[in-house]
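Please, is this right?
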Amino acid sequence: MLKLTLRPGEYIGIGDEIRVVFSGGSANNIHLLIDAPREMNIARSSAGGNRGKTPYYKETGISDEAKREITQIIRRERRENRAGSAESRAAGSHTAGASVRSAQQ
């Protein structure tokens, strides 16, 4: 089985005559446009009744532990970036003050 990631407007070509276009989606739905010859019979899986359990499944989300770890990493990086920015601003103003003093002499 092939798993693809598409952005709206991108498509999958099947042979020379069939194109499946991803046109967007929402929470639990996707929107596909299928361009195929009229003689081609295209039906979605719910057409014609229930055919039994599908072999396809929704991917499981990440664990709560992984979410907490990701949140901690992001917070740590933001703190480090803020601290680094503050240090560079302080160093820059100290250097700027020294150059102003030397220019005045």
Remarks:
- The chain has one helix and three strands.
